[in-house]
Amino acid sequence: MTAPEPPARPVLVCGEVRTGLLPSLHALDVRAATQLLRLRSDDHVLVSERPVPRVLSPEILTGVDCPLPAAGGARNRAVGTVAARAALTSGRVLQTTAYVSLPATGPDARRPWGQYLVRPGLAEPFGRLPVRAVAEGVLRGARRGELDLGIIAENLSARLVRHPLLDHRTPFKSRRTRMRWVARRVPEGDKAALERFTLAEDGLRTVELRLPDGVAAAAAAGMCEDLALHDWLLTTLAHMLDDSRLAAADGPAAVLALRPAVDHLLHLWMPRAHVDRSLTAVWDALEEAPGFTRQWQTQVQRIRDQLALQAIPLLHRALSPS
Amino acid sequence: MSEAVYRETGAQPRIHALPLAHLSLELGHLYMEDFEAGPERLRAHFAEVRIWAEAARAAAARRIGERRPRISTCFLIDDYFTRFSTPAEIVPLVLAEADRAGLVIDYLARESGCASADRLELAESVSHRLVESPPPGSHGARPPVSRTGWLANGQRTPTAARSAMAELAEWQPPQETAARNHSVFVDVELWSDRDGGRLWSCPFLAAVWQLARLGLLRHLGEPVLTPAPWTGRDFPHDWDRLPPLLRLRDSAAPFSAYRTCTLLPNSFLAVEDAVRVVLDQVDVDAGALAQVADRSAREGVPVPEQIAQRATYVFYEDPADPPQGN
Description:
The structure holds two protein chains of two kinds.
Chain A: E1 10-21, H1 30-36, E2 46-48, E3 54-56, E4 60-67, E5 77-89, E6 93-103, E7 105-106, H2 113-117, E8 123-125, E9 127-128, H3 131-140, H4 149-161, E10 177-186, E11 193-199, E12 204-212, H5 217-246, H6 251-265, H7 282-288, H8 292-319
Parallel strand pairs in A: 10-12
Antiparallel strand pairs in A: 1-6, 1-10, 2-3, 3-5, 4-5, 5-6, 5-8, 7-9, 11-12
Chain B: E1 21-30, H1 32-36, H2 39-64, E2 71-77, H3 87-100, E3 107-110, H4 112-115, H5 122-127, E4 150-152, E5 154-155, E6 175-176, E7 187-189, E8 191-194, E9 197-200, H6 202-213, E10 218-219, E11 222-223, E12 228-229, E13 245-247, E14 257-265, H7 269-279, H8 286-298, E15 311-316
Parallel strand pairs in B: 1-2, 1-14, 2-3, 12-13, 14-15
Antiparallel strand pairs in B: 3-13, 4-7, 5-6, 8-9, 10-11
Helix pairs in contact in B: 2-3, 6-7
């Protein structure tokens, strides 16, 4: 028996991140977060304390053998494993990601399963991968029976949310977001870059990246988790401001609407903090336009102004003789 | 690019290396019925095993060429499914019978050590690492193996979810995923849950045992089931006081190895086939896997990629039952 042909170089990495508030009234401390994210009892849960506590689960695998989503109806079966992981930021924001690397070509028959398992997070196409069609297909979303990264991320999230540590109460209302991303591999030494970031409806965002060979797919996943986290913060804050404007006629209600932002969110803005150093420059494109941090600072300033305005009558009342 | 100035150790995974032999050779596996059959059973066993052990050594030597192969031998005693006798009684008997056949046992293990050792639940940890081979059509939404406790090498016969009134569904055969023309479908029970807790099945514990012998088990990056040295004192009268893995000779080659060879009677064939079904669906610690691959390649004896391929077996005729007394 001859040794099996090793897989070709990956040309595409695809993933989906789900971001939302952890259903728990109180933020989890690092110890509880570690317990929640111990998806495998013998594997490391990684903890970064600074600048914002972030706990990252070990990766788990899901075996897949199905057509890849592809624009234009190109059918392409792939076999392998999808990696999934969860991250909890500041004990508050839960993210689950599923991602997979796809090589340019693959064998015409399925290998023994054990050979796929020694290459976690890789799915091989049968024959040649229609790179562009698959990239478009992944961003559009899986059709029935096609590889569904969203469902893998969602299943992991559902599994975590069932954990007895969680009381299923939240300190404020928020919406979950989905971010689909594709990273096209470029030669080592080329620059990593963000090519497109699109805000779609229903909390869907799509991201296209260029990822140099030699930078781990997990680093791209981490980069997209960071993008998704900050996008979620911006979105959530914008909703709070909208809600408070509706309540503006009634002073205390406006304060109540904005207070969770101060309590839970304002200190979480730390772009690039947990991003692999080879990819931190990717953020620069978003800082130029639309200026993520500029938007955030404007919103934070508006919240502070609102709260200050609401405080004036209170102060006035407190100072005036009764 | 310069190194990062700020680092947090909790954010960096660590993995410890293990010493590794070329071959881990298992000389036998003792169950209560073997013990009850008397010392003659052990004697006949070792006399048979000796022949195949020499063949296994010769095969290992051929693989590595000029150098002296590092081979360690081990012997497993079941104290998990049935507790019988005591280490003080059995271990000297096993060692004496091996010695009589000209065999040396380097490491002695207790089967319950594959379930838990040094307060670590090894079998449970391995169960978290099962990644089922997906039948065609799996697109990400399958129930995990943890819900069923069974692991197959293909697709089961679909269960008919129709009411009695409805037309009876036509039976459909199960299908082995890697079938060549026809299926050999295997479905392995990994555990059963009962009042006293979870009872791991023999094939599942044997798969954990293979992973330990292949140097692929870790707990948070640290080696597990590490051999305890034997001080030469008497063996205890209680199984729980015997370390799960004991090194009987200081000069023995390392317990874990690039490859394993297991010598067993024919009646274990189905169990070991099940072990391969399990091994083929375990996502082992990536760090441990890389260490074994790097070191074996540097020594010029690269291991097969597939973990199940690193384990070989010799099956021989089951010993005859002892003549009925009277």
